[in-house]
């Protein structure tokens, strides 16, 4: 019999032999084999615990002798220091890569695992606070260095027990106060004094012997008498049959629940976590799961690397596990996976980028636009496109490859890319001289008929091209990616499908490059194409290698993906600082790499976040101390806090809207029928061939028997899926008819022609990235960013120049057309040196004022950028400008007004980047929407004046982008009308709905347009009383006295008398529809009344086009449209009518239920917009009793004469 002696140590035992992990995860550790017959422990008066172990005939301890190839093996060196020996790289067979093979080896060598198998507890910072209260046994076995090479242990083996908090009696586990405290340092033991508090007697165990025959505590030591050398001795007798349970089973079994177990985890299942039990003593995590679809439940144990996952109850996970005879469903280092929040799809590029610097990967995903298109990116994209076209056309000769290359670089799209990255055609052609021969060599080496190969060449051949730019959404893995080429290969008489990743740089075989190939293999397997490896092609050096996707590599990439997700803002916990601002985003620690950090495009935003949180915690020698100081030397603390406050607001909006509104996950979590019912999908479509290629895009015609209705509109961005695959392509709608539509896609889907297709509306994160990038630019060290920081963040007041007599002479004819308010605004806009706000109340001629201003600026030789929230607002200004002004309209030509299409950038003709630049810079007036202002022209050129119309409807971060191209800027809008659209109530309450206009609005910088030309006197008085405090005034008597005129004599019911009256005093009417029982956001009774009224108006000779019907809810809009399909009456929501007007406006309030001071009806600004759309007649229809429950309608009704409130009859013809 041998004795294992446990000693209390304050630091790592230098005698410990350290065996490495299987891969790179810090949670893998040593494995050993031992067959034990019994263990008996005794305690002496000292603090040494002695355990006697009877070993069976197999008296050896075996460590895994063959860890995975090419991985680091850490062995103990001198003075206990770890020495890294790297095993030679050796190609692994498919069998050696398989889970079954690894499990077979493990079972063969490790029939009983020691506690050394259990990985160390994760760092405390990664553990949820809920773990802190868990009690258990933390065990670590260490073996003296007197082992022989064959693994046999000497009698001096040592057992270290970290904490004991349970006792076992009568075969049961009970709590005990006898405790040996553990250090928070996972590698040190007994750093605190042991504090036994209770005397343990054998009688406590009863007469029945199961796991422990007896327990006896020989000495009770007072806390004060213990010092570092004090020792405790305990004796335990353990039966051979239960030795496994003693060593490995967790001792926290009290309160075990009866959990339903009817969920199969052999294949990936999406579940919600019901309960979590962290078994720290066994380094396991037990989770209770419920499937989201079926509500089936089970329990699964996470071991090894997976036990350190930070989990929360109600988290959604995707899990795959195997059935274990002892603990049920099990995920360990050799089988299964856990993917946190799989509905958040992380791109493969972002994931492998985090291998080098996770902080940069996260910042790149947030502030993507801070890294502009570079020469390397352009050349890389070009080579990708050439190779893909060569493979697609099956071209082999160098002349044919050269022709394809020349055709591509001559396209307008590529010339525009050259202009964007400031490279010349000559430079591109020099690069092609290098890559074209390489492409030819690749073809001749790997695509039959192939020539001779060298020993360094990959020894397989490519027999077919399966796909190009294959898009994959692996929704169970929470990953997405696009494979350069999917190929069928033949290697040693074996045919298989592999992903091929093309790189144009040097052949580094870096972790990022290999990781990307492994991810593609993982994702292809997930979608039903089992793949165990992939090809990595370095075209510049003609090197291609096959990268094996082993179990451990896949595991670590999924763990890395889960770690990356930890820094995704979920909006569940938000808090402000003492100044009422949100803090900087949570980010990983910066890497220690001076060169990489200095050259990083995100160094300013990274340093700003670090300066706010974490810089003081870095070691003094860390290079980021100096880098962060230099990168933020131009910034004040208020600048940084302003930016990160708005970053948090945008992230809060995104997180909340994803939970409460339609989001991307609906595509794979809801059925096609459910999605179509929600009006987000068109289901069961068939592809009509042929697919036509046009300008590098593929036009697909989809058709079905059922009419499309209002499910789709021109320019909608859609994701295309099949019955088996999610998101195989995406693109914009180009044409629509009753049962078919054309969509332009980036790839040809003819190979899926026999499938049913499903197209879904897609709300990408591009707008969020755009807004975050704008905020990031605000921190840059540039003159333009400095100007905006002063004006916007520091709120410096603008200064004004005195206008010369020459300016006044030039502007005389234009100013003569304007009223006094308009003249004052134009002259102040000419005089400002920094910025100006123009507040344009409804109907005050705001557009006419802006057209005059733009024309005057052009006369003065200045350039103007016209931008707005909508395309229609931009075009409304451009189409009124004189034809002699040189205009350029940026953006998709399909969204431009027909009168402005002649100015579209797509009509420009050019053959080089230099010619394109010359034509773009020559334009005096450029028009683009705020969201379209990421156009490269605005990065290349500065305008004398940037004009932002509808500025009160634009989010503050969105309005920033065009201002980076401004010498001076002018914001125009009405803060009393529609604010920026914010879906999250929390984000709105915190201030996200505050526009830049409202933020800067002060009397000294804001002239007001108050003379209106739209509403008659009665409607004007209503608007003044409700919103504008008497400031609105009619321009003249014609406007003041205008009323509707009935040209024909018609018969109509009594209730229509007031609505059809031409009396000025009856210009505002309320039709009381009474209570209608409805649980939806539509109202049949109101729709019927509106139909009857509009029909009568038409019969009386009123132009249908001058009648507008507004409803606050889309369901009511759809209902009314369907009832009035034969009439040319515009029916829409308030948002669509903003900036427009009609002679007659009918407002359908819709709701007939208990009022609540929230929602669309209670919104003051929306009601103001509805009222101020009407010129001559304004008619409200709704349940007056319900509407009086809203304070804003109470005020409205108090301003309307009671004689103008008409109760509708109970019966009306439908």
UniProtKB/TrEMBL annotation:
Cofactor: [4Fe-4S] cluster
Origin superkingdom: Eukaryota
One annotated GO biological process: replication fork reversal
Cell compartment(s), UniProt: Mitochondrion; Nucleus; Chromosome
Alphabetical UniProt keywords: 4Fe-4S, ATP-binding, Chromosome, DNA damage, DNA repair, DNA replication, DNA-binding, Endonuclease, Helicase, Hydrolase, Iron, Iron-sulfur, Metal-binding, Mitochondrion, Multifunctional enzyme, Nuclease, Nucleotide-binding, Nucleus
Domain Helicase ATP-binding residue range list: 827-967
Keyword RNA-binding annotated: no
Any one Pfam family match given in the protein's UniProt record, by short name: AAA_12
Xref: InterPro entries: Dna2/JHS1_DEXXQ-box (IPR026851), DNA2/NAM7-like (IPR045055), DNA2/NAM7-like_C (IPR041679), DNA2/NAM7_AAA_11 (IPR041677), DNA2_Rift (IPR048459), DNA_replication_fac_Dna2_N (IPR014808), Helicase_ATP-bd (IPR014001), P-loop_NTPase (IPR027417)
Ranges in a coiled coil: none
Nucleus found in the keyword field: yes
Residue ranges, annotated region (Disordered): 1-21, 178-206
Catalysed reactions, semicolon-separated: ATP + H2O = ADP + phosphate + H(+)
Primary site of residence: mitochondrion
EC number in record: 3.1.-.-, 3.6.4.12
Residue ranges with Basic and acidic residues bias: 184-206
GO cellular component: chromosome; mitochondrion; nucleus
GO molecular function: 4 iron, 4 sulfur cluster binding; 5'-flap endonuclease activity; ATP binding; ATP hydrolysis activity; DNA binding; metal ion binding; single-stranded DNA helicase activity
SUPFAM superfamilies: P-loop containing nucleoside triphosphate hydrolases
Function according to Swiss-Prot or TrEMBL: Key enzyme involved in DNA replication and DNA repair. Involved in Okazaki fragments processing by cleaving long flaps that escape FEN1: flaps that are longer than 27 nucleotides are coated by replication protein A complex (RPA), leading to recruit DNA2 which cleaves the flap until it is too short to bind RPA and becomes a substrate for FEN1. Also involved in 5'-end resection of DNA during double-strand break (DSB) repair by mediating the cleavage of 5'-ssDNA.
Family stated for the protein in its record: Belongs to the DNA2/NAM7 helicase family.
Protein name: DNA replication ATP-dependent helicase/nuclease
Organism: Laodelphax striatellus (Small brown planthopper)
């Amino acid at each position: 019999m041998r004795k294992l002696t446990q000693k209390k140590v304050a630091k790592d035992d230098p005698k410990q032999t350290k065996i490495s992990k299987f891969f790179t995860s810090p949670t893998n550790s040593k494995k050993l084999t031992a067959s034990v017959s019994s263990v008996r422990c005794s305690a002496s008066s000292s603090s040494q615990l002695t355990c006697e172990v009877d070993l069976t005939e197999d008296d050896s301890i075996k460590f895994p002798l063959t860890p995975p190839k090419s991985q680091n093996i850490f062995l103990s060196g001198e003075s206990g220091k770890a020495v890294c020996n790297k095993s030679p790289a050796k190609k692994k067979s498919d069998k050696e890569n398989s889970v079954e093979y690894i499990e077979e080896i493990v079972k063969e060598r490790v029939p009983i695992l020691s506690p050394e198998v259990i990985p160390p507890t994760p760092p405390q910072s990664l553990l949820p606070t809920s773990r802190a209260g868990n009690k258990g046994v933390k065990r670590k076995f260490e073996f003296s260095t007197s082992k022989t090479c064959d693994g046999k242990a000497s009698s001096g083996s040592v057992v270290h027990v970290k904490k004991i908090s349970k006792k076992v009696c009568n075969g049961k586990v009970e709590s005990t106060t006898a405790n040996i405290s553990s250090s928070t340092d996972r590698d040190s033991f007994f750093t605190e004094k042991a504090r036994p508090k209770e005397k343990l007697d054998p009688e406590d165990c009863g007469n029945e012997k199961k796991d422990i025959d007896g327990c006896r505590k020989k000495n009770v030591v007072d806390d004060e008498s213990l010092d570092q050398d004090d020792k405790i001795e305990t004796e335990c007798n353990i039966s051979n049959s239960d030795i496994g349970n003693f060593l490995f089973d967790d001792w926290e079994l009290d309160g075990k629940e009866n959990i339903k177990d009817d969920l199969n985890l052999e294949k990936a299942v999406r579940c919600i976590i019901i309960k979590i039990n962290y078994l720290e003593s066994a380094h396991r995590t037990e989770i209770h799961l419920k499937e989201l679809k079926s509500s089936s439940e089970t329990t699964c144990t996470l071991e090894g690397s997976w036990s350190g996952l930070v989990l929360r109850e109600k988290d959604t996970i995707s899990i795959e596990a195997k059935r274990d005879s002892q603990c049920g469903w099990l995920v360990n280092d050799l089988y299964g996976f856990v993917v946190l929040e799989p509905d958040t799809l992380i791109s493969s590029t972002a994931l492998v980028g985090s291998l080098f610097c996770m902080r940069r990967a996260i910042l790149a995903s947030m502030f993507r636009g801070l890294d502009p298109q570079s020469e390397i990116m352009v050349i890389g994209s070009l080579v990708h496109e050439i190779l893909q076209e060569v493979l697609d056309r099956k071209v082999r000769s160098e002349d044919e490859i050269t022709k394809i290359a020349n055709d591509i670089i001559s396209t307008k799209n590529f010339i525009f890319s050259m202009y964007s990255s400031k490279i010349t055609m000559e430079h591109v052609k020099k690069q092609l001289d290098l890559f074209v021969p390489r492409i030819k060599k690749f073809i001749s080496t790997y695509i039959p008929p192939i020539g001779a190969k060298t020993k360094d060449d990959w020894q397989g051949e490519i027999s077919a091209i399966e796909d190009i730019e294959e898009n994959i959404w692996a929704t169970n893995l929470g990953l997405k990616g696009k494979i350069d080429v999917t190929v069928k290969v033949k290697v040693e008489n074996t045919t298989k499908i592999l992903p091929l990743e093309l790189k144009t740089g040097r052949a580094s075989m870096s972790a990022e490059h290999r990781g990307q190939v492994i991810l593609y293999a993982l994702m292809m397997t997930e979608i039903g194409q089992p793949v165990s490896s992939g090809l990595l092609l370095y075209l510049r050096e003609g090197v291609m290698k096959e990268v094996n996707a082993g179990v451990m590599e896949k595991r670590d990439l999924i763990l890395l993906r889960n770690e990356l997700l930890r820094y995704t803002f979920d909006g569940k916990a938000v808090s402000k600082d003492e100044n009422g601002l949100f803090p900087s985003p949570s980010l990983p620690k910066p890497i220690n790499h001076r060169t990489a950090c200095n050259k990083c495009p995100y160094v300013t935003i990274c340093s700003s976040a670090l300066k706010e949180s974490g810089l003081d915690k870095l070691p003094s020698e860390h290079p980021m101390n100096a880098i962060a100081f230099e990168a933020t030397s131009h910034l004040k603390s208020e600048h940084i806090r302003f930016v990160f406050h708005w970053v948090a607001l945008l992230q809060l909006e995104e997180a909340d809207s994803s939970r409460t509104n339609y989001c991307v996950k609906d595509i794979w979590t809801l059925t096609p029928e459910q999605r179509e019912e929600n009006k987000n999908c068109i289901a069961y479509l068939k592809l009509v061939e042929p697919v036509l290629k046009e300008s590098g895009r593929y036009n697909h015609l989809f058709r079905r028997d059922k009419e499309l209705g209002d499910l789709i509109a021109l320019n909608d961005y859609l994701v295309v899926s099949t019955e088996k695959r999610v998101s195989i392509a995406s693109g914009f709608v180009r044409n629509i008819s009753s049962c078919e539509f054309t969509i332009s896609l980036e790839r040809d889907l003819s190979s899926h022609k026999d499938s049913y297709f499903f197209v879904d509306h897609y709300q990408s994160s591009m707008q969020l990235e755009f807004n975050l990038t704008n905020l990031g630019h605000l921190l840059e060290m540039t003159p333009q960013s400095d100007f905006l920081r002063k004006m916007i963040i520091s709120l410096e007041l603008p200064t004004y120049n005195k206008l010369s007599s020459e300016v006044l002479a030039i502007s005389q004819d234009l100013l003569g057309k304007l009223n006094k308010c308009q003249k004052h605004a134009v002259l102040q806009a000419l005089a400002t040196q920094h910025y100006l706000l123009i507040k344009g109340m409804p109907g005050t001629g705001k557009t006419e004022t802006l057209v005059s201003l733009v024309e005057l600026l052009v006369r003065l030789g200045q350039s103007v950028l016209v931008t707005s929230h909508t395309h229609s607002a931009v075009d409304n200004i451009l189409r009124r400008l004189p034809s002699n002004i040189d205009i350029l309209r940026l953006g998709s030509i399909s969204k431009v007004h027909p009168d402005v299409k002649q100015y579209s950038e797509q009509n420009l003709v050019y053959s080089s980047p230099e010619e394109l630049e010359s034509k773009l810079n020559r334009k005096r007036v450029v028009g683009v929407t705020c969201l379209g202002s990421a156009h490269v022209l605005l990065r290349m050129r500065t305008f004398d004046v940037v004009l932002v119309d509808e500025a009160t409807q634009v989010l503050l971060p969105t309005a920033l982008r065009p201002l980076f191209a401004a010498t001076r800027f002018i914001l125009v809008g009405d803060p009393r009308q529609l604010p920026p659209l914010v879906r999250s109530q929390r984000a709105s309450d915190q201030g996200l709905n505050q526009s830049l206009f409202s933020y800067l609005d002060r009397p000294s910088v804001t002239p007001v347009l108050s003379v209106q030309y739209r509403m008659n006197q009665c409607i004007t008085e209503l608007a003044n009383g409700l919103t504008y405090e008497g400031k609105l005034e009619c321009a003249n008597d014609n406007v003041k006295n205008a009323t509707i005129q009935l040209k024909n004599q018609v018969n109509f019911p009594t209730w229509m008398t007031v609505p059809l009256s031409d009396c000025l005093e009856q210009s505002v009417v309320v039709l009381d529809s009474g209570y209608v029982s409805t649980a939806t956001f539509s109202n049949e009774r109101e729709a019927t009344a509106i139909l009857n009224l509009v029909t009568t108006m038409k019969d009386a000779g009123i132009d249908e086009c001058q009648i507008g019907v507004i409803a606050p809810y889309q369901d009511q809009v759809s209902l009314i449209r369907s009832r009035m399909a034969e009439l040319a009456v515009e029916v829409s929501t308030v948002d669509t009518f903003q900036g427009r007007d009609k002679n007659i406006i009918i407002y359908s309030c819709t709701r007939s239920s208990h009022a609540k001071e929230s929602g669309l009806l209670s919104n003051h600004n929306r009601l103001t917009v509805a009222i101020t759309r009407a010129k001559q007649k304004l008619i409200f229809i709704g349940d007056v009793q319900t509407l009086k429950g809203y304070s804003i309608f109470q005020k409205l009704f108090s301003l309307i004469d009671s004689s103008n409130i008409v109760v509708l009859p109970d019966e009306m013809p439908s």
